[in-house]
Amino acid sequence: MRIFLSSLSAMSLESLFSDFVAHLHSAEFLESARHKDHPSAFSRRRKLPLPSLVAVLLSGMRKSVQTELDEFFAHLQQQAQLARQVSEQAFAQARVKLASTAIPSLNDWLIARAESEGYLNRWRGLRLVAADASTIRLGLRASHQPRAANADQILFGLCLPGTDLMLSASLHSQAEGERQMLFEQLHHLSSHDLLLLDRGYPCRWLAALLTQRQIPFCMRVEKQAGGFKCVQDFLRSGHLEQIVTLPPPDEADARDYGCPTTPSKVRLISHTASTGTVRVLMTSLIDTPAFPAELFGDLYHQRWRIEETFKRLKHGGVLIFV
Fold this sequence. Notes:
Transposase Inhibitor Protein From Tn5, Chain A, domain 1; nine-stranded mixed beta sheet; 12 helices
């Protein structure tokens, strides 16, 4: 989960953090945060209550656990000296009682609040969502127990450009494909979103599936692996835009991903970047008057925000998987 709120005003942040603290202390969050194997967890007053446990996790945990705990309680007491109030063992015992859905639910709460306040970036009424993946190297602590995790993994995320909030994030092995990662996260999207994708994602089954689920999309396709014949024909035509029909997905892909074995109608738009590079964007938004072609260049450029978000996550950001 990523919490990044640089685009909000100071007054908005004050109100938001006040409500966030209240939510952390609420009975509603307490019930949702308990692990199913520990139904009475966080009931009694402890040195590390639920709000403090979550706050420590949200701090990023870049140092040893004990150092992070000592610094955290020193900050609470507004003192420079480290404060030893909770042991690493006590932290581990409390953390195991936290449900895996607790932190993601906080992220959902934050996004819902940001949306209600009108902070999420919209384009022609659609919420912009950029998807991408990036290789990360995790620090693994020494342990006598065998580990299933590898240091090098793939971080996949759905990012909300503008606010740079992560709608969702997941870790995957390097053997998994980015399209499969996206497929597993599509339940976060709806017909009110506009999915922005780079060149690694376009394929027939994905276009068919997004069309079936009525999830609008815009993806770059001029150098897509394997290529679409209609895209090559479009490039040679010199047209600014054209509505074309993609062939149906293979039966195996349709079976694996639950998409229809029917052709997909899409719109191709040519855009010349400031560098002189000619891009071809494929979109399901075929209503030309409602979505003029000249707007798509700036629209696609907003996808770059997820690259900047990944950079911050990998170099000092807050990334938590419980």
